[in-house]
Specification:
Radius of gyration: 16 Å
Strand order of the largest sheet: 1-5-7-6
Helix content: 25-40%
CATH superfamily of the largest domain: VC0802-like
Shape: globular
CATH topology of the largest domain: VC0802-like
Oligomer: single chain
Largest sheet: 4 strands, antiparallel
Number of domains: 2
Strand content: 25-35%
Structural class: alpha+beta
Mean pLDDT: 91
Length: 131
């Protein structure tokens, strides 16, 4: 099943789901496979180390260090991995309001990791796309 590529359709019909919990980004030695058995949201291999995205609770349990705490918002519209401008429109709007965002594109949906204290504001700003 191929995802949507039309920017107007994507913005108008996206549903915003604020996920339960708090999330963090951690970096560990990429040769250390001990963390791969955890219930991770995402991993990414970089030259400097293995980035883990996981629940704050799990990071605290395993004493993993992190700098910021985020909420995760899932954009429930099946966007194509080839869609042009979808995340640019969203991140641009958030930037206009001084809100940082760390987007992750998965096969079916895009996910936004936004500062814990600004999650409700982000939901309201995203609603403006479908009004």
């Amino acid at each position: 099943m191929q995802g949507e590529t039309n920017l107007n359709t994507l913005l108008q019909f996206m549903q915003r789901t604020l996920r339960e919990g708090e999330y963090v980004f951690c970096s560990v030695n990429h040769k250390d496979n001990n963390y791969l058995n955890l219930k991770l949201i995402c991993t990414f291999i970089e030259d400097e180390g293995l980035t883990l995205i996981l629940s704050r609770h799990l990071a605290d349990t395993y004493e993993l260090s992190y700098t910021f705490v985020f909420r995760m918002i899932t954009l429930s519209v099946h966007s194509s991995l080839e869609a042009v401008g979808f995340l640019a429109a969203i991140t641009g709007k958030l930037a206009e309001h001084g809100i940082s965002v760390n987007p992750v594109s998965a096969y079916y949906h895009d996910h936004l990791f936004v500062p814990l204290s600004q999650a409700d504001e982000v939901i309201k700003l995203l609603q403006e796309f479908s009004s």
